[in-house]
Amino acid sequence: MQKLHYSSSINAPIKKVWDTMLQDETYRQWTSAFSEGGYYKGSWDRGAKILFIGPDPLTGKEGGMVSRIAENRPYEYISIEHIGIIKDGIEDTTSEEAKKWAPAYENYTFTEKDGKTVLDIELDSLEENAEMFNEMWPKGLQKLKEIAEMQ
User: Fold this and answer.
1) Whose CA is closest to 63, among 44, 42, 41, 91?
2) What is the C-alpha to C-alpha distance for residues 90 and 54, in angstroms, rounded to an integer?
3) H/E/C letters for each residue in 20-69?
4) Mean pLDDT of 113-128
5) What's the domain range around 104?
6) I want to staple 86 with a disulfide (CB 3.0 to 4.6 A). Which of 24, 64, 76, 122 is the partner?
7) Into how many domains does the chain fold?
8) Of 151, 145, 143, which Cα lies nearest the Cα of 28?
9) At CA 125, angle to CA 76 and CA 43, rounded to 5?
């Protein structure tokens, strides 16, 4: 596992960036950079189970990640612990494929600087996924920035 880091300065208050990132409608918009049609089921509350789901580009069936919210300090920090995968619509936390990368963490830190919100992201990645993430995350952050700055 390796740690990947991304950051974006967004010309909007922290609450606006937080809400844009996590609310269902805008979440679907900015995360389309990762998976068109992606969404989540569950809660962002600390300790809650949350599923990140999207159509598999090859089969069209549901795929994604089984996760839980490890930490949630509103408008400051959120940590997602990925604990398994969803393949063909079925949750899997015990197979070798799931255990190969789980647990993996995705952490978001929100800070205010010069009237803007700085969003810092740190995530665990298998080496073979790093290049893909390095292409997707800047696009996703750009979409998040555009949506948050629009309103």
Assistant:
1) 91
2) 13
3) HHHCHHHHHHHHHHCCCCCEEEECCCCCCEEEEEEECCCCCCEEEEEEEE
4) 94
5) 2-150
6) 64
7) 1
8) 143
9) 45
Interval 39-61 mean pLDDT: 89
Can you read off the two tokens belonging to residue 131?
A: 């290049």
The one-letter amino acid code at 63 reads: G
Contacts of residue 117, Cβ cutoff 8 Å, sequence gap at least 6: 9, 10, 12, 13, 14, 16, 17, 110, 111, 148
Residues 52-92: pLDDT tens digits?
999 876 677 888 999 999 999 999 999 999 999 998 888 99
**CATH (domain of 8):** 3.30.530.20
pLDDT bracket for residue 47 (50, 70, 90): very high
Contact 66, 54 (CB under 8 A): no
